[in-house]
């Protein structure tokens, strides 16, 4: 009888000491640097005139001349696109009175270049054609999708490396993934502005340095941390 009781008690004691699991939260981060090999130009054509018709006629002429001058410089891989006309009345305050000064007509011009080699020539041609403003030079990489996938894989590997190191530090084992939080919008290129600034050449002309793109990604992950009492 005593032997039977002792066996039962031993089995109960074993059932009360299972392997227990806690959660380990960590983040993986990674970044990649790449030189841009493409660029998008956001240009602005505008004209102020006394009548709306005259303002429209002037700005349409700027767009038409710009397209004609840029066309020989563009390849089949490049793109030229002009927006619809926007026109509004313009006023100025003179001696606290609002005075009508004319109608402002505006059209945006977008030029995508698959190669950076012709950038300076394109900009010069646009300015000669009457374009009023270069609003933005948006540099890109032709390998963007591959770079995004690569930096994402590095961020995932970083999360695993950190989690394994922490688990070892606590004399535990890294269990399966419990939860993953991923913000896809973080995997976007960030342009280092110093690379896009115009540099004046010794000859007196102008040239544009290749912009450096920084691809960054981050993933938050929770692992099961397996320990024994």
From TrEMBL:
Residues 1-21 form the signal peptide. Keywords: Signal. It comes from the Bacteria. InterPro entries: 26kDa_periplasmic_antigen, SIMPL/DUF541. This is DUF541 domain-containing protein.
């Amino acid at each position: 009888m005593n032997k039977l009781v002792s066996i039962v008690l031993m089995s109960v004691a074993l059932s009360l000491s299972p392997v227990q699991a806690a959660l380990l939260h960590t983040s993986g981060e990674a970044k990649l640097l790449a030189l841009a090999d493409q660029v998008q130009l956001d240009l602005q054509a505008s004209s102020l005139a006394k009548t709306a018709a005259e303002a429209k006629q002037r700005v349409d002429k700027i767009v038409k001349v710009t397209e004609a001058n840029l066309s020989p410089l563009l390849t089949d891989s490049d793109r030229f696109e002009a927006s619809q006309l926007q026109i509004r009345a313009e006023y100025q305050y003179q001696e606290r009175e609002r005075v009508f000064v004319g109608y402002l007509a505006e059209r945006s011009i977008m030029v995508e270049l698959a190669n950076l080699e012709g950038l300076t020539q394109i900009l010069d041609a646009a300015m000669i054609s009457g374009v009023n403003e270069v609003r933005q030079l948006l540099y890109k990489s032709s390998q963007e999708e591959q770079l995004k996938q690569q930096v994402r894989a590095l961020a995932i590997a970083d999360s695993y490396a950190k989690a394994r190191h922490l688990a070892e530090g606590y004399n535990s084992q890294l269990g399966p993934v419990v939860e993953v939080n991923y913000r896809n919008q973080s995997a976007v290129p960030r342009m280092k502005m110093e690379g896009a600034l115009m540099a004046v050449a010794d000859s007196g002309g102008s040239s544009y340095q290749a912009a450096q793109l920084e691809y960054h990604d981050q993933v938050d992950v929770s692992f099961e941390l397996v320990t024994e009492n």
